[in-house]
Amino acid sequence: MEIIEKIKTNQLINNQTEIQKICLHKLQSSPIPNPKSELWRLSNKSKFSNFLNYSVNEKNSKFDIPYPENSQNSIRLIIGENCKIKFIKENYSIQQLSEDELNKYIKDQIACFDQNENWSDLLNLSLSSKKNFLGLKINGSKIPPIEIFSHASSNSLNAKTLVIILEKNCDIELLQVNLGKENSSLSQSTFFVLEENSSVNHGVVSYGKNKSNLINSLNVIQEKNSSYNLGSLHFKFNYARFEIRIKQSAGNAKTNIKGMQITKKDEQISTYTKIEFNGPNGFLDQINKSLADDKSHAIFEGSIIVPKIAQKTDASQLSRNLLLSNYAQIDTKPQLEIIADDVKCKHGATIAQLNEEELFYMRTRGITLLEASKLQLSSYFQEIISFIPVSKDKWDLLDKLLNEN
Amino acid sequence: MVNENLVKDVVKEPYKYGFVTDIETEKISKGLNEDIIRLISQKKEEPQYLLDFRLKAFKKWQKMDEPDWAGLGYEQIDYQDIIYYSAPKQKEKISSLDEVDPKLLETFDKLGIPLTEQKKLTNVAVDAVFDSVSIATTFREELAEHGVIFCSISEAVKNHSNLIEKYLGTVVPASDNYFAALNSAVFSDGSFVYIPKGVTCPMDLSSYFRINSGDSGQFERTLIIAEESSSVSYLEGCTAPMFDTNTLHAAVVELIALDDASIKYSTVQNWYAGDEEGVGGIFNFVTKRGKCLGKRSKISWSQVETGSSITWKYPSCLLLGEESVGEFYSVALTNNLQQADTGTKMIHIGPKTKSTIVSKGISAGNSINSYRGLVKMGTKAAGSRNYSQCDSMLIGDQASANTFPYIKSQQPNSEIEHEASTCRISEDQLFYLQSRGIEFEEAVSMMVSGFCRDVFNQLPMEFAAEADKLLALKLEGSVG
């Protein structure tokens, strides 16, 4: 209940929006998520309460963008800083959603929320003020790559919300970067609608500093013939959750997901995905990689739901995990729930350490053990990093992963 | 297009074990309380430690909640509306099979269970359990020559009390889960097997469970102990009459394997599954667990689950001994409104332990068939390996097949591999077989049998043949 009191007292000073009121009301009936539910069962309780422990802050401190502006004309947006966004060019337009449009959309979403499953979104929406709420409507073609930044300020709990409606036949590359400061908590919720025939290459890169926390929730609705590619990377968070919910609302859509989480020290990072096929001919190819070192804990839970209507679905899910230390642990639970009979669904999971034979081979060629393990790790990371759009050329993520502690 | 109706017809074979034996039985009154437990204990002339064990379990059970995590849909069970002890009336002591009520023998004869010792050719020793009591155990003398103890657990309590006191509840503690606690409080009968050091059991042992009364639950308890370097193969079969009420079956099976010992436990479960509308049928809530205590010990579970309206069963292995091995081979077939939530738990505790899981689920009609399994590598399980494979086959577009594997590793020097797939009976394959002159139904049954081959290969021969036939019968009319 503490968190609700905190939000309430904070909101009393400012004007509460209608959405905030609705969500706060909903949150009151379940002030904390059900610890017995599969979604929260493995979540570290003290880390989670630490997440909520910071004071709610709407003001944003300045932050350093982790890499220089691209020479190409990419569009760079920072949630909480851009007041008015309007790019209307010959081929395309990127505009802010009007307040009414935004409210209507979010209210429709809230109506379908499950109190426990969408707890992170409820928290986000009850915290997120107008200023930290970015809604975009994108249409047209030849749109330059878009970069959107969210960041937390030190010693505070920030909430940022992003809504993107991609209109028909539109094609974009979008990189979302979530940055954690020292001792901070960031709640990021993203709502994505892909209208018919649209396509997105979506990258999500989240990384923190000492003791930063993150709850990152991503809700995607894919209409017919849309294609959604997601490359994600989460690392250096004391506590992080990445929740992905994708719904192919009428089937006939393609989803590709490649995600990775890396935990060190005593960090806990978890990824939850739920992919629903609400129509026939859906396609999914998902791979999730985890790497756990030191005393850390990596969790993956992915569910694929194929109801009767979703005939001819082709879905595959793979969870690959590397466990590098005696004190680290990995939990993985890929699951299938299938009713339609004419489907191809499979999943797989492996947990192992670095391949000893490969290491030995490299060492016989004069490569040191450290170098050889780095080589192996880089090939393990590269599959995911190469899938993240925009950043991959100019921002050396691989170097960050291999060389930073 | 596969003819849906034909497939449905294939599954519609009536349940042939659904008859009721008209025999005078001794039943105690309905309900569950301390007095009932004392009464059961008294009827079985049990020593004090066992009564204490029961009462302790009952106290724990009262504080527990019925598990709901499996998401099985069934009406709340009224535990006070169940008879916890029901036994066919017979003479005080039976010295030979000739004294067993002929009606009972006839019942088992009808079920195809060889109780009369003339049927020695089958070379399987049988312990037959009818409602709450064991009525006969065959081949005892032959087994005794090898030092093998095979009897009902009530007899073991009387004659081998030290073993029971030492091992009962050590694998599945009374407080393990809701149904295990209930069983610990009210267990009636079951089988007890003890294989002494260095003995390879000369014949397959088997127990046959038969529920006859509609209003009594069956709570049997099986305990198998394999001493150093011994081995045994144990088979279990179950049937029940057709009643339009649900009957509760909550059993506990405990296996203990010491150094170099091996236990193979096979089940063909064919409890009454309820009718097409889902009326009646057995609620099969069973806790089965084996403990590989010794080095290089091995426990292998194989099961064919075709009956019960609801199955909730996870035969597990605790792999404590160095280089111990756990195996789980399962075929679960659900049809009509059956629900099966079954799988295994492989807990790797000792170093260099290995486990294999092969699970095949077939769902037809409106049934729900879920695989739920846990593979856990503890911190000391260095050099351990697990391989799991779960395949589901869907017949018709109303059935559901779910897979929930929980995988947890705390040991970097171990490997876990899991794979799962879902398929249907392929039209191409059906067409191919049919074009070769194979009847439609036979083609379907061949394909199902092929799908389950990995598991059937693990069953003892008599069972494999029975299982194959059983699946074909169960599926009759459901594929089309």
Record the SSE blueprint.
The complex is a heterodimer of chains A (405) and B (480).
Chain A: H1 2-13, H2 18-29, H3 45-52, E1 55-56, E2 75-78, E3 86-88, E4 92-96, H4 99-111, H5 119-127, E5 133-140, E6 146-151, E7 156-166, E8 171-179, E9 184-194, E10 199-207, E11 212-222, E12 227-235, E13 239-248, E14 254-263, E15 268-277, E16 283-292, E17 297-306, E18 314-323, E19 329-338, E20 344-352, H6 356-364, H7 369-385, H8 391-394, H9 397-403
Parallel strand pairs in A: 1-7, 2-6, 5-7, 6-8, 7-9, 8-10, 9-11, 10-12, 11-13, 12-14, 13-15, 14-16, 15-17, 16-18, 17-19, 18-20
Antiparallel strand pairs in A: 3-4, 4-5
Helix pairs in contact in A: 2-5, 6-7, 7-9
Chain B: H1 4-10, E1 25-27, H2 34-43, H3 48-63, E2 86-88, H4 102-110, E3 124-130, E4 133-137, H5 140-145, E5 149-152, H6 153-159, H7 161-167, H8 178-186, E6 191-195, E7 204-210, E8 221-226, E9 231-239, E10 246-249, E11 252-257, E12 262-269, E13 281-292, E14 298-305, E15 310-313, E16 316-319, E17 325-334, E18 339-342, E19 345-348, E20 354-363, E21 368-377, E22 385-394, E23 400-409, E24 415-424, H9 427-435, H10 440-451, H11 453-456, H12 461-475, E25 477-478
Parallel strand pairs in B: 3-7, 6-8, 7-9, 8-11, 9-12, 10-13, 11-13, 12-14, 13-15, 13-16, 14-17, 15-18, 16-19, 17-20, 18-21, 19-21, 20-22, 21-23, 22-24
Antiparallel strand pairs in B: 1-2, 3-4, 5-6
Helix pairs in contact in B: 1-12, 2-3, 3-8, 6-7, 9-10, 10-12
* Whole-number mean pLDDT of chain A: 88
Count of helices of chain B? 12
Poorly predicted residue ranges of chain B: 1-11, 117-122
The count of helical stretches of chain A stands at: 9
Q: Which of globular, elongated, flat, extended, rod-shaped describes the shape of chain B?
A: globular
The proportion of residues forming helix of chain B, as a percent range, comes to 10-25%
Q: In the residues of chain A, how many domains can be counted? A: 2
Could you tell me the number of beta strands of chain A?
Answer: 20
**Average pLDDT taken over every residue of chain B:** 84
The major β-sheet of chain B equals: 10 strands, mixed
The helix content of chain A, as a percent range, equals 10-25%
The radius of gyration of chain B is: 22 Å
Class by SSE composition of chain B: alpha/beta
| Total beta strand runs of chain B | 25
Oligomer: heterodimer
Largest sheet composition of chain A: 11 strands, mixed
Strand order of the largest sheet of chain B: 4-3-7-9-12-14-17-20-22-24
Largest interface: A-B, 34 and 34 residues
